[in-house]
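::Amino acid chain::
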Amino acid sequence: MKKQQFKIDATQSIIDWEGRKITGSHNGTISIKQGALTVNDGQITGGTFIIDTTTIKVLDVTDPATNAQFAGHLASDDFFSIEQYPEATFEITAVNNNRIEGHLTIKGITHAVSFEANVGVAGDVLTASGHLVIDRTKYGIKFRSGNFFNNLGDTLIYNDFDLHINLTARAAA
């Protein structure tokens, strides 16, 4: 069995996010700060990565002032509280075929999550991608959630948001 360590290349890795509300959706990116993956015989068996919440960007709002206001709101205590929690983390706890299980920590709150991943290893480069659906209210993000507030009408924001993770990692020397 060949065991390798791969260091995540933060410049080549990104998370695309999408959140939905009654009247539409918004999307953007958030950067991965660092991380490492353990691979046995070409299969991921463990690892962790750190998400830099201070890098959250909104891509679908083109007006600069509105974009800055929206990004600031996502950074606020209504959403990700980035001054207090500048990082989120994901730690792999188990892998079953292409199903990754792990602990996702956002705002200091940890929950088990799982998702299907596509993983490829070519020489000393590993690529991996996966899609998670996260219930934001489990992480204390309750702003305009129908679970906590009444009569929101068309200002309601759905609890679930999507994370599309795309990682590139290089074999450690």
